[in-house]
Design a protein that fits this description.
Belongs to the ABC transporter superfamily. This is ABC transporter ATP-binding protein. Keywords: ATP-binding, Nucleotide-binding, Transport. There is one protein chain. By secondary structure, the protein is an alpha+beta fold. It has 3 domains: about 200 residues, P-loop containing nucleotide triphosphate hydrolases (Rossmann fold, 3-Layer(aba) Sandwich); about 40 residues, no CATH class; about 120 residues, Distorted Sandwich (Coagulation Factor XIII, Chain A, domain 1), CATH 2.70.50.60. It is built from 9 helices and 19 strands. Strands 6-7-8-4-9-10 form a 6-stranded mixed β-sheet, with helices on both faces. Strands 14, 15, 16, 18 and 19 form a 5-stranded antiparallel β-sheet that branches. Strand 9 and strand 10 form a beta hairpin. Helix 3 crosses helix 4, helix 4 packs across helix 5 and helix 5 runs parallel beside helix 6. The longest helix is centred in the middle third of the chain and has 17 residues. The chain is globular, with a radius of gyration of 29 Å. The chain starts with a strand and ends with a helix. Bound molecules: adenosine-5'-triphosphate. The site of adenosine-5'-triphosphate has 12 residues, from strand 1, strand 3 and helix 2.
């Protein structure tokens, strides 16, 4: 059985949000003496009971960035840490990297930890790229010879060879993160910790980083903790998932399960509305809606909606006038109000009663994002009977499959068309170049 390399028990971190005076000079002096001179915990700081606790008189306002976390990571496992902004992901990585200390609980780590937490961590701004590579190696406990053996590989990966002797404070953020990633990934740490580095780089760099992380994890059997807001990147790289919500561990398990649970919980939708009483229903003297519903054709019942999911829109309306030619337009808008398409139904002659309609948006057609649907009911293909705006809303998650690039995909739609490349001729071009 694989060895446990990170063990986290009842881990909590409380941040103090500003310091409020105690109201007594003697206590303020006591606080200053203890925290500033003796570098000890504030005697008037009390642990809060909730996520954010308002400061009572004399206490600081405090926030649980992490609360009672328990989990263990085994050698060679690749963990994706997910959660909304402010959930505590970076705080957890900083504690595991020993950059900050927990307020409570125990963390046991085994082996050399290399962290790439934010642009700038670990590098000394006044030192050159070359000096920083050696410095990082020494911090990891490597000898000069060991770093030298990796030096060329690091430089080649980072692509900053022309700036090796320039102080890193003069690097662009892109150059900085390239070198920092190259150092973190090549110096053979036992545990590699990466926080959102992919957000900084371009598509080519993202691809290179993910490839390198995969190699570090799968070929070298090292342990990786990876924070990203890209679920596609997390699913593609990691085998375990950990979901933090307001500092608490909401779920842990296989990456697919945890990412699914997270996406289902964050997806906003208004997928069904129905009315039994026409007097209460949206409409007018011509028609009134009885029901509108968005039915996703999910492969698994608890999966989130993603760009592969076919979506069927079903609706019914009461038609109050006989012998009328009616058609309906289904119009899809992005959340920002851009019209993606306007699909008309057939025009049919109806008698008074209930009219039902159904239209399916195929899977592998829309881009990821938030959308809303409006239904326009039309008489004789020209005259509006009723516009039911914004009647359904939904969100589609991204899905990349084999594609190893996780930037925002361009376009209002993302259709999958038959598209092949074939070699139609062989030549000696390569030899001539
Ligand atoms: N030094 C600090 N002092 C006070 N509060 C802090 C400090 N660092 C983080 N926090 C707070 O702790 C909470 C957790 O922050 P953290 O940066 O760990 O979240 P995160 O999940 O990494 O967020 P994001 O996805 O936005 O990077 C947030 O509410 C944040 O405002």
């Amino acid at each position: 059985m694989a060895e446990v390399v990170i063990q986290v028990e009842q881990l909590s971190k409380v941040y103090r949000l500003g310091t409020i005076g105690t109201g007594y000079l003697i206590q303020d002096l006591q606080r200053w003496w203890t925290t500033t001179v003796r570098k000890q915990q504030d005697p008037f700081f009390q642990l809060p009971g909730t996520h954010v606790s308002a400061g009572k008189s004399g206490q600081s306002q405090a926030l649980w960035a992490l609360q009672d976390l328990n989990f263990e990571v085994k050698r060679g496992e690749v963990w994706g840490i997910i959660g909304n902004n402010g959930a505590g992901k970076s705080t957890l990585l900083k504690i595991i990297s020993r950059i900050i200390r927990p307020s409570h609980g125990i963390i046991r780590g085994k082996g050399k930890v290399s962290s790439l937490l934010e642009v700038g961590t670990g590098f000394h701004p006044e030192l050159s790229g070359r000096e920083n590579i050696f410095l990082s190696g020494y911090i990891l406990g490597m000898s000069k010879r060991e770093v030298q053996a990796k030096f060329d590989e690091i430089v080649a990966f980072s692509g900053v060879e022309h700036f090796l002797d320039t102080p890193v404070k003069r690097y662009s953020s892109g150059m900085y993160v390239r070198l920092a990633f190259a150092v973190a990934a090549h110096l053979e740490p036992d545990i590699l910790i990466i926080d959102e580095v992919l957000a900084v780089g371009d598509a080519e760099f993202q691809k290179k980083c993910l490839g390198k992380m995969r190699e570090v994890a799968h070929n070298q059997g090292r342990t990786i903790l990876f924070v990203s807001h890209s679920m596609a990147a997390i699913t593609s790289l990691c085998d375990h998932g950990l979901w933090l919500q307001q500092g608490q561990l909401k779920a842990q398990g296989t990456v697919g399960q945890v990412v699914n649970q997270y996406l289902v919980s964050t997806q906003q939708s208004n997928a069904k509305q129905s009315w039994n009483d026409p007097a209460q229903a949206p409409g007018n003297e011509h028609i009134r809606f009885k029901q509108v519903e968005l039915i996703p054709q999910l492969v698994q019942p608890d999966a989130p909606l993603d760009i592969r999911t076919p979506l069927t829109v079903k609706f019914q309306f009461w038609n109050f006038t006989s012998d009328t030619v009616i058609s309906t337009s289904m119009v899809l808008f992005s959340a920002g109000g851009e019209c993606i398409f306007d699909v008309p139904s057939t025009a049919t002659r109806f008698q008074a009663g209930i009219v039902s309609g159904e239209c399916t948006i195929p899977g592998n057609f829309l881009n990821d994002g938030a959308y809303y649907i409006s239904l326009y009911v039309i008489k004789d293909t020209t005259t509006s009977l009723f516009d039911y705006e914004h009647c359904l809303t939904f969100e589609l998650e991204d899905y990349r499959g084999e594609i190893q690039w996780f930037g925002k995909w361009w376009g209002a739609v993302r259709p999958v068309f038959p598209f092949r490349l074939t070699q139609t001729e062989f030549s000696q071009l390569e030899a001539r170049l």
